[in-house]
Every structure is written in structure tokens, then in C-alpha cells.
């Protein structure tokens, strides 16, 4: 098996070069295009089923691309594959081997080279690279490969790991030439494979590919395009483009291009054929700006899989001869990119369905109260590919009080989401009949027990923390069914610092076990915030639960304000490390005073941002907001509004909320991206600095995925409340 144990001598196991996920794809045999003489023909004709590599048609695409690269290269290259280091090489390396060719082809290295394999610089270096994955350059190493070792040869040898589509090491590539640039690019190809293995989305793939191409080939121009229905969308990088840290955290800016066959990227995508222009004006007919008009040399490589069409183009502003080895390298890289893009597209489709299912079961809007503010957030686990069982809810009761709940159904699949939907719906019905926490939990306990009995499954595990808030005095009555207790943030009084603690709620059994529940109570004073959360917020693999709880309490105490949106954003990042679980948080703040708020609907048209600036300036001045705060808020809001209108492609809603402590601004869209995308304004175009300005000018900011679309918000503390 490739990865943990290489290619086993007993045959190729699932997960190796012939894993079911790979072998199901259409495979073109290695060397099929090489019908002439030499090593390519020998490799194509060789019976690989007699070796540990197995039949050629079942080879992993990434490994196959490495073999094609090696065979097409004029530089001496050899591949040593698997635990027994089966030998493959090209024509140039056959000349190095002299009398050992062709018997060495397809043989384990120790058998092919005999005692020479155990000499320094041969088997020891290959084994080291295969074991560690770290590339090794051996300058002028003495390698006696001729029979008997009477005439040792001297070579500069580069050894680099070759990885399969999942990033596991499949073998070692030996380049016997004094070509630093070739070695660097081959090592970069291995790094590209490893990075693509961790790319989940098309945006991730695009960032990896553009970074690899610009750095490895020192390009002036690079474009990655994928099909989008009847047209193509693409991302471009050009030399000299200023990039900052914010760019790498945000999705790339996609542009659209019609299916114009005059465009090299469209021609490559449609025909599946690569084209190379050494000197000319390859983009003259379709150039959109001076950068494209200046391109003289261009390589256009197709990205083709059963479910994806696209292209990768690389260009220089000067004449450039695309040599055979470089062409082979580019074709191999393009095949890796195409496979990664197809995997990413499948993931995004599954991820989008799961997200829509999950969010459709959560409340689209939370209640609005005069002196209480509510916010919630839900983030999927690391895999992001399935619906989960975490949920939150807040709703008005018949007597004017507020019910609030956060729960967790064990599991991370559609079944968990279905149980979650039933529990949430039943909770609302029970609370509207008798809102007392013990009564509600007792009814839910009967429901969960019934669901378990019907499915003949005793493993339905549901935890809930449920409370009732009286807006008249801020009192809260709580009960917990096996759920972590909420965090209470007490606002500092008279200049004192804020404090935070876990609420003392009597522990109760999880639902479905026939337990009895007791209540706890607290008073939410003006300025205080209560935060409910799921265990994904505080649990980390291999670390004590108390460590996560302590970190969350400390983060709440150190928060600049108790604003619920800020508290939700802070909670999801309070504990270091990643979690495989979903994360749900619900925060309620007792405001010091009634806030003033206003909302504007913005049409998806070019004048939208300027209308927002005028409306917001007028409103904030009416509210006597200090001018420095107004200026900073207008700049940030304009950036987010432009982003929403241009990239979500839908109308936006701008909401401003002002109280004695801070100004809170949110911009919501109904697009499907579900994440922040930088704007393309004239002054901040495609450089990611818009988000940098928001980080610099605001005291806190965040993104909240909603049932449809996303909301981006920022908070600015007013003078006298700013952090010291």
C-alpha cells in the first residue's frame, strides 16, 4: 500500500495505487502516446502485473503523471517505487545504466543494481527520501552503476518524493543531471500534489495552483478557469500584484468569460488539447487590459475530467521556448490540478446540500426586544460535508417571556439532523403549552425515548440546555439535560473589569433516559451577557474538557464588549486547535439602554454603495456619533456593501445599531457563497486590503452564515469605551 507501508509485495491493496476511488476513473495507459522505440515503448509493453505495482491500468493518476513526466524528459531520470523500489527510467537514464539496461526495468532496485545499490549515495539516500518525504540533492556523488563497479560515474543527483493523489509517498524520483531548475520544479510538483490533497473547495485549489505556478515558473501571468454552465469563470494572477495575508484567507476574485473559441483558455478547455506559443501575441484578440496585451509566450493546458472542463494558462512578457521537459511537467501538473478540481466540485455540491439542510432547520430570524439583544452562530465541523445535530433557538412565549435553547444530537449525518429537527419542533410546541424548564425537558425526554424505541436503537443521545428569560427584570430560569452550562459575562461596574463564570445549573441526565431535572436561576443585569454553546466549542482531541471551558471563560471575561454577535464570534475561536464537531452558540445581552437602529435595503446596482454612504452619514450625524467614528464606519460599510453586491449578486441589507457603548454595523446578502469575499472597488481592487481596513478600523468583526447567504458585521466602540 502506498503511504504507511508503500506498495506491499503481496499486491496492491485498496488505498494504494489501485484504490477503488481512483480505479473507477477512466484511465489512459502510461505510454499510450509513445508508440516509438525506447523506454516509453518498453514501459508500455511491460507486464507490470508481475510486479508489486500491479496492472498499469490501475495505477494512481498522480503516479501515472510522474511516470509520463519522466518518460518524456530528455534529462536522465529514474523512479524507484514502493517498498521494494521497483525501477522505471527513461531513455536518457538508460544511457547512464549502460549494460544494466533493459534488464533493470521493472526489477526491484536491489536486484537490478546488486552491490551498487548498497553503496553510499544510492539505496541509502532513496530509502531516506521514501521514508521522510524530504528531498535530497547529492552534488557530484560517486555512483558505481556499471557492472562490477570498475568505472564509477559522477552525477549531480536530485532525489524527491513522488506522491499519489492523496498525498502519500508512492516512490522516489532520481534526476541524474546538473539542472537545479528542473530539480526545483520536480520538488515543487511533489509539494503541489501534497497541497492539492488538502484542498477542499475550488477556491482552495485555485489558491494552491496560482501560488505554485507563479513561484515555480517565475511567471508574468497565470489564469485558472473552470466551466460554469454556458460560460467559464476564472481567476488571474499577474506579476507585481500586491498580495497580503488577507488575500490568503479570502476566496479569490472570480471573473466570467464567454465561451469564445478565440480565447486560448476556452480553446484548451473545449478541445482538451494543450497549446504552446513561444513568441507572439496570443491574447491579442481577447485581451481585456494592458497586462494581457503584453503577454508574448503562453502555455494553455486543459483541465478535463468526466465532470469538469477548464484550463490553466501560464504566460511571459518575453519570448520563451517551451522545451519538451517543461511541457511534460506542465501537463503532469495540469492533470493533478484537474483531479483536485473535480474532487473539490463534488465536495462543494455535497457540502452545499448538507449546509442547506442544516440551516433550513435553524431559525432564520431571532426575536427582537427593546433592551435585550440576541445573536447566534452555527459552524460545521472540519469535514464540512454532512449535516449535524447541533441546534439553537429563541422565541417569544405567550406570556411575553423569551425561551432560549441550545442542544446537541450525537452524530454527524442526516439521521442526526432529522432527530434534531424533531426535537427542536417538539420543544417549541411544549414550551408554548407549559414553558417551565422541567416540564419541557420531561416532554422531550419522552419524545427521544419514543424515537429510540421506534428505530430499535438505544444509542440516540441528546443534550439540551433550556432557559426562560423575563424581560421585565432580566431573571432567567435554566435547566440542563446533560449539556455544558452556559457562560455568564458580568459587565464591570464603575470602571471595574468584566468578569465571567460558568452558570451553576443543576446537572441532569441527557434526554431519553427517564431523568428528573431541577432548575437554576440567575439575574441578567444591564450590561451582562449569557452565552450558551455546544461541546464542539470547548472539546479538543487529546485535551481535558476543563481546559477548553477555562479558555472560553477567560475569553468572555477579556472581551471588549458583551455584544452578542461579538461574543458568538469570540466563542468559536476561544479554544486553540480544530474540532471535528459542529459548533453552535447563542448569546443574549441585557443592554444598558435601548439602542437606536435603522435598516436599509440596497438594490444590486452600481449606485448602491454611494446611496448607503449618504444614508448612513445622515443617520449617524442625526444620532450625534463622533465624526472619526462616522468616517471609519462609512469606509468599512462601503467596502462590505460593494462586496455583497458584486459577488453575491443579490440585493443587500445594511443594518446599523447604536447604543451608549458601541456602533454595530452588519451587511447581509442572500448569495450562496456563505463566506466573505473581498470587493472589487477601484481603490481596493483584488488586493484584499478592504478586509485589512476593517480589521484595522474596527474593534471586532466577524461573519455569520445564515439560512440563505451570509452576514458580515463589525463593531466600533465609542470614545470612552475603547479598549485601553
Please give a structural write-up.
- This protein is 33% helix and 24% strand.
- The chain is α+β, with helices and mostly antiparallel strands and 724 residues long.
- The strands form five sheets. A six-stranded antiparallel sheet has the order 8-7-6-11-10-9, with helices on both faces.
- α3 (61-72) packs antiparallel against α12, α7 (180-197) packs antiparallel against α8 (202-217) and α17 (608-622) packs antiparallel against α18 (627-648).
- The longest helix is centred in the middle third of the chain and has 37 residues, at 324-360.
- The radius of gyration is 31 Å and the shape is globular.
- Mean pLDDT is 80; it is low at 1-36 and 672-689.
What share of the residues lie within helices? 25-40%
User: How is the biggest beta sheet arranged?
Assistant: 6 strands, antiparallel
Using the alpha-carbon principal axes, give the shape: globular
Structural class by SSE content:
alpha+beta
The end-to-end distance, rounded to whole angstroms, is 58 Å
Strand content: 15-25%
Oligomerization status of the protein chains: single chain
- Outline the low-pLDDT stretches: 1-36, 672-689
Number of DSSP-assigned strands:
26
Number of separate helices: 19
Question: What Rg is obtained from the alpha carbons, in whole angstroms?
Answer: 31 Å
Mean pLDDT: 80
